[in-house]
Amino acid sequence: MRITMMSRWNIPCGVSTHAELLGRAFVKMGHNLKVLAPVEYEDYQTDKDEPYVLRCYRLPKKKEGFFFNPTPFLEDNYDLFVVQNLEILPMEDLLKVYPRIKERSKTVFVVHEGKPPRDPIFYRFDWDAIVCFDERYREFLCKIYPEDRIHIIPYPCHPLLPGDKKEARIRLNLPLDKKIIFNYGIGIYRHLHLLPTIERVSKKYPLIFLTLTHIKEWFDLFDTARIKYKFIELRDGKLPINMLYTYLHASDCLLIHKDSAEAVVVPSTAYLCLGAGRPILAYDTNFFATFDKEVLKYSSLSDVLEDVFEERENVKSVLRTAEEFVKANSSIEIAKKFIKLFESLF
Questions:
Q1: How many domains does the chain have?
Q2: How far apart, in Å, do the first and last CA atoms of the chain sit?
């Protein structure tokens, strides 16, 4: 099947993560994929683009440097046209070429929007199918689109990829004799207020708070913080997925702290990282509303850290449940659901 997908790509965000996991699974399954991605304004790209990725427009958040090249939309041959997160894309320009796209292919919209957008252009696209991740999305989408066009396909997980802790630490030049709490990405600032708690835990368990980001402001913030909190191990850089998994393998746990959002949300970081076989410590908010026992939800971080470091049964149980969850929702399994939906449109 010839699939063209319009989406962000190789960028540390939930839209890109979904597109990459799904798109690479399509390629692995033998389908012909073309990704039409934006040229990013910031230097956020985490990895080199694959040959099937073409950056042919910019997101319309700035007037300076914006462009939209319609040629690949109009001249490429494809059976399916898949759009990820429509509201952030250049909708006005896309709408101009959309009738031609509809003439040559079936169209599918993957909803990342957590609430109905305000821009009226959003509602002028006639999709053959709309895909959302769970019932929370369907609830508001039913007020916008015909119910028979809305399909629930869960967010994909990175396939299981276990690794040896000692080997990973040696490779990354990390201590073998300390516990490691891992924290990475563009949102590391959300963990600053947890440092006093981690400091108290560190008096009982020698540990490092391994923090990695390529955002200069957040790096500088933690660089200042480690003057007081000596257990912070700070590294600067971007994380391609293969290197991310090496860091996960080296760690005792991954910490994700996000406050509740007003819109419907999913924790893309958790889906990306569950396959590493390390417990994810998740602040108990609506970001993790659809998770049950696949992650360690906490209100008291110190208690759950002690459970992890003592390797207690509740932690082992979460890891077993997470493994089964990843198997059922791996990118290949989710890609199969998409292909089944695509086939039904013909």
A1: 2
A2: 12
For residue 192, give its domain range: 165-328
Structure tokens at 320: 């077993």
Distance, CA of 208 to chain centre: 25
Residues 318 and 334 in one domain: no
Round to whole Å and give the CA distance between 108 and 126.
Answer: 10
CB 188 within 8 A of CB 218: yes
* Residue that has been written with the tokens 């629930």 in this structure: 152
Q: What does the CA dihedral 337, 343, 344, 346 come to, rounded to 10 degrees?
A: 160
Is residue 172 within 8 Å of 145, Cβ to Cβ? no
CATH number for the domain spanning 66: value is: 3.40.50.2000
Query: Residue 4 has which token pair?
Result: 């063209």
**What are phi and psi for residue 71, nearest 5 degrees?**
-55, -55
Q: 72 CB contacts (<8 Å, ≥6 apart)? A: 4, 34, 36, 54, 56
Backbone φ and ψ for 96, nearest 5 degrees, come out as -65, -35
Q: For the chain of 346 residues, list the mean pLDDT of each consecutive stretch of 10.
A: 97 95 98 96 87 96 88 95 97 97 97 96 98 97 96 97 97 97 92 95 97 92 95 92 96 93 92 97 91 93 96 96 97 98 97
Adjacent-strand bridge partners of 82:
5, 108
What string of DSSP letters covers 274-319? GGG---EEEESSGGGTT-SSSSEEES-HHHHHHHHHTT-HHHHHHH
Q: What is the pLDDT of residue 67?
A: 94
Which structure tokens are listed for 12?
């540390």
> How many Cα atoms within 13 Å fall on the side-chain side of residue 136?
16
User: What's the predicted TM-score (pTM) here?
Assistant: 0.95
Residues 181-196, buried b or exposed e (16+ Cβ, 10 A)? Answer: bbbbbebbebbeebbe
Give the Cα separation of 117 and 95 in Å (integer).
16
